[in-house]
Amino acid sequence: MSNTVSLLKRTEYHSDYGMRIYEVFTGESLFDPQFQTLDLGLTPEESHLIQMIEILGPFHPDMLDVCPNAHQWFTETGTLRIDTTYYPVSLKSILHARIAAEDVAATAAFLDVVLQLDPKERPRARDLINHPWFTAC
């Protein structure tokens, strides 16, 4: 998820193991910044932010308050500056199309924990060692 913070803060945050786990399981990135950029006239950054909100939910205002570039993308109320319609989608539905059915529930539960928009909300790797996703292996 380093792209989240990079986009808003223009710094790198090295705690993106949730994204790497998703990529290992599916063979693709969770977000595609080029998706519908031409069709909808979006920049890659706008497309990326829309996808993040659709899959992971809205950005918490506290996170936006500390991001120096947030004003470029978000209003004072925390909504995106671009006029768009959101189509929320669950990780489970995304995973159903990409991994074995018997792995979907446990993998989605694990990714729900690690794929937090706010890096401060993400568990550390050592805190996850007893997560059912690992202990079921």
UniProtKB/TrEMBL annotation:
| Enzyme Commission number(s) of this protein | 2.7.11.1
Query: What GO biological process terms does the UniProt entry carry, in alphabetical order?
Result: regulation of mRNA processing; spliceosomal complex assembly
Output the SUPFAM superfamilies linked to this UniProt entry. Answer: Protein kinase-like (PK-like) (SSF56112)
The organism sits in which domain of life?
Eukaryota
Reactions the enzyme catalyzes: L-threonyl-[protein] + ATP = O-phospho-L-threonyl-[protein] + ADP + H(+); L-seryl-[protein] + ATP = O-phospho-L-seryl-[protein] + ADP + H(+)
Question: Which Gene Ontology cellular component annotation is one that this UniProt entry carries?
Answer: nucleus
Enumerate the GO terms in the molecular function aspect.
Answer: ATP binding; protein serine/threonine kinase activity
Return the InterPro entries for the record: Kinase-like_dom_sf, SRPK
Alphabetically sorted, this entry's keywords are: ATP-binding, Kinase, Nucleotide-binding, Serine/threonine-protein kinase, Transferase
Give the enzyme class: transferase
Q: Which PANTHER family match?
A: PROTEIN KINASE DOMAIN-CONTAINING PROTEIN-RELATED
Report the protein name in the record. non-specific serine/threonine protein kinase
